[in-house]
Structure formats: C-alpha cells, structure tokens
Amino acid sequence: MAAERHYSPPEISEPTLMETVLHHGLFFGAIFQLLCVLAIILPVSQSRKTDSDGSGTKTWQAVKKPKASAAQLSKKPKKESKKKR
Questions:
Q1: pTM across the whole model
Q2: Percent of the chain, pLDDT > 70?
Q3: Which residues contact 23 (CB under 8 A, 6 or more apart)?
C-alpha cells in the first residue's frame, strides 16, 4: 500500500505588465528614498569659488530684495468715502 505521491510545485502565472511596472516602480522609489535620506545625513561641502577682488559677485542676501511684512501690507492708506454736500 505504499502509493507514490508526486508533489508538483504550484503553477505560477507569468507576471502581468501592471505587476511588472508596480515592482519596478517600488524598487526605484525605495532607491530614491534611500538617496534622499543619505543626502540629509551626509553633509555636502558648499565651497564656492570667489574672485580675488570680489567686486563682481554678490551674495544671495545682498541680491535678495526685502519683502514687506503682512502687517505693513494690511495698513494701506484708506480712501475717504465721505461725500461733501
């Protein structure tokens, strides 16, 4: 009564196009997240080449125009709406 049992692996269907796109998208997304985390953790030196005289270059703060604050913008002079009769 020793019957032989044949165990065959389950049939695995070929991955569809959507499954392949999802697989590769998740893979590249994980790599992108790791690069972003490494960019935060590892500092990058910010050395800039400057001219010897320095007359032709301006820093970002010197070029940037100051913006008016919200309080100054809200205090615009109001026009008088009273009519003279």
A1: 0.40
A2: 55
A3: 15
